[in-house]
Amino acid sequence: MGEADRISSLPADVIVSILSRLPLKDAVRTSALARSWRHLWTFLPGLRLGWLGDPLGDTSARPVASSWIERIHHVVSSLRGPLLHFALAHRFSSDQFALLQRLLDLLLQKGPVEKLRLSSLFERGVIHLPSFHSLKELQLHRCRIVLPADFRGFDRLSSLTLRSVQISNDHLHLLINLSNNLTTFKATNFVALGDQPFSIKLNLPLLRYLEFELDKFVERVEVSAPCLEQATIRSYAYCRSKEFALVNLVLVTSVVMVSSLYLDHDVLKSLSFAALPSNFTFSRLTCLELFLNARTTDKRKCDTFIWLLQSMPLLKVLNIELNDYDYSIVTDSVDILMRELLLKKHNGISCLDKTLKCVRISMASLNSVMTVIALVKFLLQNARVLELMKVAYWTGPEVDPSMLEVLQNAKVTASSKAKVVITREWM
Amino acid sequence: MITLISSDKRKFHVLEEVANQSLTIRDVIEDRRGRRRADRIILVTNINSKIPEKVIVYWLRHFLMPEEIAHASMSHKKAEKLKKWEAKFFDTDIDTLNDLILAADSLDIPSLFDGACEKVSDILKNRSAEEVGEISKIENEFTHEEEEEEIPSENAWVWRNEFA
């Protein structure tokens, strides 16, 4: 044997970290490699099972066989090291939930589980979430959750993600507000257990990142998060926005301290600022992302836009994404959208005078630049320190000469440094 | 500028900002800040000269493309380019990968460690124990009994050809 076996000379923890990247079956098979490898796999720090990596999972898949759950049960009980993370995405049939529950209870004994991810459990069965005391990261997706009766919060939990989770309003409150160390909270598409829509009060002293989707199951949201740095607030695509006026106001007033904010069209439209003090500002915000729906033209949206600029004295980067996939309609609604902007005089918008350096407008087709041309003109004419105005698109023909002309004509810039760039980008 | 010395006594001069990608080196530099020049030499034992060369190439590529940028505003094109570059970088024999893993482990360079481990696991994926043994030159010293009875019975399902 001339050549040396180099892989076995790696430290055991390094080998285990290679094993943890293998499919479970392959990892277990390495027990037949050599005596020193016999039990290495039993020190796997975690297990990832099912369709992970595929966020939606295979919805057509049949539930797993009960023997599969037994097998995993056996694997988990053979592990000798601490089990730090566990991820499972599989469909289960209703009668298998007892087995699944037994598996979760075993995880609790094995622990200390720090990262837990359960997704796509589909069927009607309810998961009773055991009290994983060491949990730092919890991701739940497409499942029904019930908390233990003596739930006292996850003390160490720093990241919580809930997507399409069915949970009762009370339990949701317990889960969030008893987890004092949360720094990241992402929630989309709740489904209420029971008839009452959610009324959510978040009181999170350490929260820094919030992603929240408003939908018909959410009636009211109040956030108290003094450390919040970044917020993304969008509304569920098919919901009418007028129902949310109140929600958004409360939510937005509590994100005053963020440095990066993402608002989508419907939130923007229903944003009511009448009740805010006149000197209200987002005192740290440097980056604003807006998602505009090109189909709707609305005077109020224009006012809101100006109000946002006025209330963001440090704004440096403005990203606007135009939802214009259906651009046959877009081209009809040419430019009424922001024409209002040009008619009025706007003085004393601090960010336009002093800080706004980069504007990026992206859209599916350059044709729809017509809908925002007034906006482009407005920014070029008023932003005095602008350095870059980038218009990006990703379908349709290469730059249409007539569009170029329109943009060239718009190029009466207030800032001597401003560059206008039109690019076709690869998605 | 700091100097790395490999186990076969070759010297490598690297900009501090570049070598900073190793958390181990960053700590050492931090400890020795303000001291004489001679102290800015770091011995890298257990690593032959072929590996520092590769590590430095990796550093330089990533130095030009810091991860924060990669995360926030890097265009898809650039991300794709970097991905292709990494695929080529890690497309090497298993011994070199082993050494890279060792180097990344001792120098604490998480992205290099992850990339190299990922590649090794790709090589070992979906293979029988015999094949893995052959690729990695691991010598099997099991007794006949262990091999024929004990091991196969422990987790019987992994030896069958079915969906796990």
TrEMBL record, chain A:
TM stretches of this protein: none
Source organism superkingdom: Eukaryota
Official protein name in the record: F-box domain-containing protein
Residue ranges of domain F-box in the record: 4-40
UniProt xrefs under Pfam families: F-box, FBD, LRR_At5g56370
Annotated InterPro entries: At1g61320/At1g61330-like, F-box-like_dom_sf, F-box_AtFBL13-like, F-box_dom, FBD, LRR_FXL15/At3g58940/PEG3-like
SUPFAM superfamilies: F-box domain, RNI-like
TrEMBL record, chain B:
Keyword Cell division set for record: no
Alphabetical list of InterPro entries matching this protein: SKP1, SKP1-like, SKP1-like_dim_sf, SKP1/BTB/POZ_sf, Skp1_comp_dimer, Skp1_comp_POZ
GO biological process: jasmonic acid mediated signaling pathway; protein ubiquitination; ubiquitin-dependent protein catabolic process
Matches recorded under SMART domains: Skp1
Pathway membership, UniProt: Protein modification; protein ubiquitination
Annotated ranges, domain SKP1 component POZ: 1-60
Its biological purpose: Involved in ubiquitination and subsequent proteasomal degradation of target proteins. Together with CUL1, RBX1 and a F-box protein, it forms a SCF E3 ubiquitin ligase complex. The functional specificity of this complex depends on the type of F-box protein. In the SCF complex, it serves as an adapter that links the F-box protein to CUL1.
Record family assignment: Belongs to the SKP1 family.
Name this protein carries in UniProt: SKP1-like protein
Organism (species): Rhynchospora breviuscula
